[in-house]
């Protein structure tokens, strides 16, 4: 292995010890005795130091000097106190050499009221370039003391290695002042150091006798000010090489071929960020067989490496160099109050021009970098960031005299060099020299500094906060970031003198450190969310990821087709996310919402395909690629209650499985991964080497167990369902007996179909407040999402609780209208509440979804608005739990929950409540009763019926069909079509009326009717519906020649018909219209509307009968014209004759003549989408509002008594055509039909205007009877 001979990085590197098990025969890059110590590293480090090892920002007096700040000592005034108590003070300790620091302890000043309540901790190797220690990469402060005498000690989560330690007070006793005694704990730290200056290298040569190992570990530390360069390169066999390279402050693991640096490398991993901060960073490479673990600081990524790197041979040796630390003092602008004031010139003349240089790094797109006043004629210069570009403006009296712009994407966290020069009337602004760009101008006025330079800040310096002078208005946001290498007139500015108040002035700065943090490394955005950041926060862009939330944690999709169904969705393609917030990505499936909810996953060939053998291969191998990935398939199969796949083989002299004793000619592969060999066929049992006919005993040749094994010259087939989930899906087919003369075959592998969601219905019933279920500890350190459904009649109770030493998480029903999500991750308890306007203890299912991540906590209840609680900006974010997880109760067994909990999922994993409930007293598995929650999904008079797992919409009494009785049953008609629906023959009724079924009997004893239908036609006149009884009472619904709607009732054969007509015309306009007729006794209400969303108007009428002895001849002649158009959802009381004719054409009451074409012509989508709803009003042609006296006979077949024969007549529609009625009038009791006076029926002239060209007939189904 070797390091490239021309590294670019100027850095120091240390190779340190990694302890390993000797039995693993591992190679180590280098051994350092200090790192291999096994003794505890917790010795005191400060107590024996000399007073000269202590420094401070100031001291109150000589007796309050920093040298007295030793734990439990009473020397001097009993500790250190600064001259002024503010946040600019600090205490520094020089440990004399680089030391491993594991803990820190603080104490107040002895016998006083002076102590710290919180502080920051800084470390450094040189006494400069300080680095703030952070817990959990977020917590910047340490809690301090509450009195002057007690000792508060904190063990560092990650030991720090440094020579210098600095403590910065944040808060102190408000009744006292800053007072401190401290101690740190740890042990000496030594290491071998090498310095690289850009043209040097360190090479390790393989030993002559390489040792083969299964594990290699190579560790090092490095620090650098450069953001690019090669850190390490390992040469492998066959011209391959691995290299660790810095690129823009990130460490990349690259694979190169042929050892040529010019070839484009393949990136294997990228870790770390801001690694050019001149602080030590840990790097570890651990090879385990063909995998490599790359660790940078605390973050690890696992990658697969080529076999050429199956072992590394490292020669161990000692290399020690000494090197000087480069001094670079940075300053951090933390907020709007941060500014740095420096003298504006180092020359005697302020009008000679200006030359200013500095470097900055930030994540913000905008911020004021520099401002200064011009010496002549007034005016101010602003140098600022806007949209991540560097801009310069010169303003005077509110007007921009000059604008320049340079650079782009300067908010990338990298150091960018800025130079501002004005000489000889030429103004130049340059960013990153040649790499960035520059802008120039020749202003008509000199650009120089009047007196001071101001870096950063929100309020312009020299201006009162309330001043409205144009030059005092600052339209820019404050700069938050770091600066270094500040120069004025090519003289470096000593920022240490600034800190010591010997140069310039400042406020709210962190001097001698750059406090930049990369909140996107590692990214907290999950599932491919894209991370972006400002100086204070990060943001996740979740678009196109399929997830949402502050960290893209929660899936936007349901976990199964079953869940979509219970949201009210009908059949279609849906994305399902089988593990919710887990790592498996969403997949697109087809959900077939029938009585069972089927999930259908397609593959690349589901059609019946003829076998085409390959001449060179004895077997034909056929692979099937699925639309879902492997992990998606297995998760979908696992959570389903039942899965199946059709497997068919059509054969002619092509044997399939042969005999149980012999080797099969063909087989298939199924199951996880590439699949296992399966030697049974569809419909048989695994391992049986049989087909379905062999299992059933009905093969064409009983000597064989498959039809195809009979080897006959006639076509036959072996087909069946594969239903064992362990063998699904089918991955490949291997077909053998296909090359003999005369052999022919075809195969079909259907799509994978599954139904049932074991997770969705997994439920438990808690019948006591003291009953609960317990599970292992919930691990949701950084992201936790919890979702479940509940129903209860109790007003309160705890759904879930998990405790830690201090941390906890809990979800509870606090009252009948409120759910609370509470937790503590170390920052104190937080609560998120959702209030409902309706009671939640209504014994209906309610859905709860809670999520907690490093940015926020959210709580959702049903479809109510989401409640959100933001996380503290600088707080703990690891949730640390250690007790059992309690469901339905608490650890104290108080405030338990009474009711049902269902589909409980934690971070996408479903807890099996039912299995645990089976062995837990007071808890029962399952929870019946779903119609109270989901019954409203059943539409159009569909009835909800309970199932053990779920519900079913019974559409038998509805004119609609579909999973929710939502699909209109429609048919397109031609003039030759007729449908008859007969209830009972007259002789059967008269012979034994008690034998009628209850459903028929209820319809036969009518006191009124509910009739509804939808129609679409361009024909007028047209008869839409005709209902008659054995005694010649009838109801007719028609469109007259004026395109008006008429309803004719005849309730007494001795009276003439009652006629109701619409005022509006244009009902035969090809649009979809809906008619509803409701009669109760002597009152009729009729509603007509066009199928759009608008208000409905209903009018009620009293009926008057007009004597008529037989069928109206006008209706008979109108029926003989036939009907062309669409009829949909025809309903008469509880009977749906059109639905019966289309879906059950062979049933007893239905008879069909001519082609009956099922279509979607009655759906709302088929209507004109631009047409507004028209609500028409009907007016009667006879006297209104008069009671019907003696109009209804007590033995009337339609109204009272028993129906003899009821025939629906829809010419090409409901019963028997009017043409048939007209031609067969002699079947009625009176052979001669009395005519209706022309005055009574003036609208019929029997002209037909049928036009069916505009009637949609999507996917028609024709019935010919």
UniProtKB/TrEMBL annotation:
Residues 36-187 form the F5/8 type C domain. GO terms for cellular component: membrane. InterPro entries: ConA-like_dom_sf, EGF, FA58C, Fibrinogen-like_C, Fibrinogen_a/b/g_C_dom, Galactose-bd-like_sf, Laminin_G, Neurexin-related_CASP. Residues 1239-1265 are annotated as: Disordered. Residues 552-603 form the Fibrinogen C-terminal domain. It is found in: Membrane. It is a single-pass type I membrane protein. Disulfide bonds join 900-927. PANTHER family: CONTACTIN-ASSOCIATED PROTEIN-LIKE 4 (PTHR15036:SF40), PIKACHURIN-LIKE PROTEIN (PTHR15036). Belongs to the neurexin family. This is Contactin associated protein like 3. It comes from Salarias fasciatus.
């Amino acid at each position: 292995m070797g390091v490239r001979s021309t590294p670019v990085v100027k850095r120091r590197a240390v190779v340190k010890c990694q302890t390993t098990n000797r039995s693993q025969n591992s190679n180590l890059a280098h051994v350092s005795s200090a790192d291999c110590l096994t003794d505890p590293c917790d010795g005191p480090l400060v107590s024996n130091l000399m007073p000269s090892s202590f420094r401070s920002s100031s001291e109150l007096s000589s007796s309050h000097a920093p040298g007295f700040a030793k734990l439990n000592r009473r020397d001097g005034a009993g500790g250190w106190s600064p001259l002024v108590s503010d946040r600019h003070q600090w205490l520094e300790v020089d440990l004399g050499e680089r030391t491993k620091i594991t803990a820190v302890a603080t104490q107040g000043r002895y016998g006083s009221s002076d102590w710290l309540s919180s502080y920051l901790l800084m470390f450094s190797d040189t006494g400069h370039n300080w680095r703030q220690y952070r817990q959990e990469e977020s917590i910047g402060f340490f809690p301090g003391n509450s009195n002057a005498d007690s000792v508060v000690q904190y063990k560092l989560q990650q030991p720090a290695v440094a020579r210098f330690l600095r403590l910065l007070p944040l808060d102190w006793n408000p009744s006292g002042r800053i007072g401190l005694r401290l101690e740190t704990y740890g042990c000496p730290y030594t290491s071998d150091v090498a310095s690289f200056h850009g043209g040097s290298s360190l090479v390790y040569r393989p030993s002559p006798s390489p040792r083969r190992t299964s594990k290699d570990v190579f560790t090092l530390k490095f620090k650098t000010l450069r953001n690019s360069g090669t850190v390490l390169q390992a040469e492998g066999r066959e011209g391959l090489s691995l290299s660790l390279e810095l690129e823009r402050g990130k460490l990349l693991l690259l694979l190169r071929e042929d050892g040529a640096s010019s070839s484009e490398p393949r990136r294997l991993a990228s870790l770390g960020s801001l690694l050019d901060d001149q602080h030590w960073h840990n790097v570890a490479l651990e090879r385990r067989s063909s995998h490599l673990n790359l660790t940078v600081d605390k973050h690890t990524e696992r990658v697969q490496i080529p076999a050429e790197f199956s072992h590394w041979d490292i020669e161990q040796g000692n290399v020690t160099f000494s090197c000087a630390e480069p001094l670079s003092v940075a300053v951090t602008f933390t907020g709007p109050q941060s500014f740095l004031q420096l003298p504006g010139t180092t020359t005697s003349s302020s009008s000679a021009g200006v030359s200013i240089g500095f470097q900055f790094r930030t994540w913000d797109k905008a911020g004021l970098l520099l401002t200064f006043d011009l010496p002549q004629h007034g005016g101010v210069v602003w140098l600022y960031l806007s949209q991540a570009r560097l801009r310069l403006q010169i303003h005077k009296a509110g007007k921009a005299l000059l604008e320049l712009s340079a650079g782009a994407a300067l908010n990338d966290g990298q150091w960018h060099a800025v130079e501002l020069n004005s000489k000889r009337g030429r103004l130049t602004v340059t960013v990153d020299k040649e790499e960035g760009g520059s802008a120039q101008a020749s202003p008509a006025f000199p650009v120089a500094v009047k007196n001071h330079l101001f870096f950063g800040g929100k309020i312009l310096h020299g201006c009162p906060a309330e001043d409205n002078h144009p030059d005092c208005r600052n339209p820019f946001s404050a700069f938050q970031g770091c600066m270094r290498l500040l120069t004025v007139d090519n003289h470096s500015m000593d920022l240490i003198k600034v800190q010591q108040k010997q140069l310039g002035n400042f406020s709210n700065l962190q001097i001698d450190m750059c406090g930049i943090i990369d909140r996107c490394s590692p990214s907290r955005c999950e599932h491919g969310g894209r991370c972006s950041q400002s100086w204070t926060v990060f943001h996740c862009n979740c678009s196109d990821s399929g997830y949402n939330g502050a960290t893209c944690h929660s899936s936007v999709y349901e976990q199964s087709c079953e869940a979509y169904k219970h949201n009210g969705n009908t059949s279609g393609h849906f994305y399902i996310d089988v593990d919710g917030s887990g790592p498996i990505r969403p997949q697109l499936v087809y959900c077939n919402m029938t009585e069972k909810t089927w999930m259908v996953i397609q593959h690349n060939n589901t059609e019946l395909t003829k076998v085409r053998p390959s001449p060179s291969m004895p077997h034909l191998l056929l692979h099937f690629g699925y639309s879902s990935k492997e992990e998606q398939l297995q998760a979908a199969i696992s959570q389903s209650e039942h899965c199946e796949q059709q497997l068919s083989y059509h054969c002619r002299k092509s044997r399939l499985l042969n005999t149980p004793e012999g080797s099969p000619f063909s087989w298939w592969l199924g199951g996880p991964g590439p699949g296992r060999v399966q030697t049974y066929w569809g419909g048989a049992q695994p391992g049986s080497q049989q087909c379905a006919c062999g299992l059933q005993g009905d093969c064409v040749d009983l000597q064989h167990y498959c039809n195809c094994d009979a080897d006959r010259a006639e076509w036959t087939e072996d087909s069946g369902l594969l239903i064992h989930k362990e063998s699904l899906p089918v991955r490949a087919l291997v077909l053998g007996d296909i090359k003999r003369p005369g052999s022919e075959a075809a195969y079909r592998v259907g799509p994978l179909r599954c139904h049932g969601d074991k997770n969705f219905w997994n439920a438990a019933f808690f019948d006591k407040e003291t009953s609960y279920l317990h599970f292992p500890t919930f691990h949701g350190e950084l992201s936790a999402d919890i979702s479940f459904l509940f129903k209860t009649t109790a007003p309160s109770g705890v759904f879930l609780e998990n405790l830690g030493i201090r941390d906890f998480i809990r979800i509870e029903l606090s009252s009948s209208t409120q759910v609370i999500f509470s937790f503590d991750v170390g920052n104190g308890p937080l609560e998120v509440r959702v209030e409902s306007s309706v009671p939640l203890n209504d014994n209906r299912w309610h859905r709860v979804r809670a999520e907690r991540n490093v940015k926020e906590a959210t709580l959702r209840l049903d479809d109510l608005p989401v409640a959100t609680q933001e996380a503290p900006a600088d707080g703990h974010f690891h949730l640390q739990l250690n007790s059992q997880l309690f469901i339905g109760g608490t650890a104290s067994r108080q405030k338990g929950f009474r009711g049902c909990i269902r589909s409980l999922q934690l971070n996408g994993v479903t807890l099996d409540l039912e299995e645990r409930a089976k062995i837990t007293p007071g808890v029962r598995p399952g929870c019946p009763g779903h119609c109270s929650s989901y019954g409203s999904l059943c539409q159009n008079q569909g009835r909800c019926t309970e199932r053990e797992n779920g519900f079913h919409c019974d559409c038998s009494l509805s004119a609609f069909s579909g999973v929710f009785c939502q699909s209109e049953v429609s048919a397109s008609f031609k003039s030759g079509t007729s449908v008859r629906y007969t209830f009972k023959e007259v002789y059967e009724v008269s012979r034994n009326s008690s034998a009628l079924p209850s459903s028929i009997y209820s319809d036969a004893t009518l006191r009124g009717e509910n009739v509804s239908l939808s129609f679409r036609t361009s024909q007028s006149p047209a008869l839409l519906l005709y209902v008659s009884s054995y005694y010649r009472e009838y109801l007719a619904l028609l469109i007259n020649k004026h395109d008006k709607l008429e309803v004719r009732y005849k309730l007494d054969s001795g009276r003439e018909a009652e006629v109701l007509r619409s005022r509006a015309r244009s009902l035969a306009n090809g649009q979809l219209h809906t008619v509803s007729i409701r009669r109760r006794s002597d009152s009729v209400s009729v509603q007509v509307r066009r199928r759009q969303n608008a208000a409905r108007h209903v009018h009620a009428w009293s009926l008057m009968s007009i004597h008529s002895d037989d069928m109206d001849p006008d209706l008979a002649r109108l029926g003989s014209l036939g009907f062309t158009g669409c009829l949909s959802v025809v309903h008469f009381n509880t009977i749906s004759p059109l639905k019966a004719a289309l879906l059950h054409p062979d049933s007893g009451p239905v008879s069909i003549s001519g082609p009956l074409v099922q279509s979607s012509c009655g759906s709302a989508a088929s209507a004109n989408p631009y047409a507004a709803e028209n609500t028409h009003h009907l007016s009667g042609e006879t006297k209104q509002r008069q009671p019907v006296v003696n109009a209804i006979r007590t033995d009337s077949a339609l109204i009272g008594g028993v129906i003899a024969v009821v025939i629906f007549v829809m010419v090409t529609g409901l019963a028997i055509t009017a043409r048939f009625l007209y031609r067969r009038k002699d079947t009625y009791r009176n052979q001669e039909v009395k005519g209706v006076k022309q005055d009574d029926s003036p609208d019929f002239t029997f002209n037909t205007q049928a036009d069916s060209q505009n009637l949609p007939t999507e996917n028609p189904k024709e019935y010919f009877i």
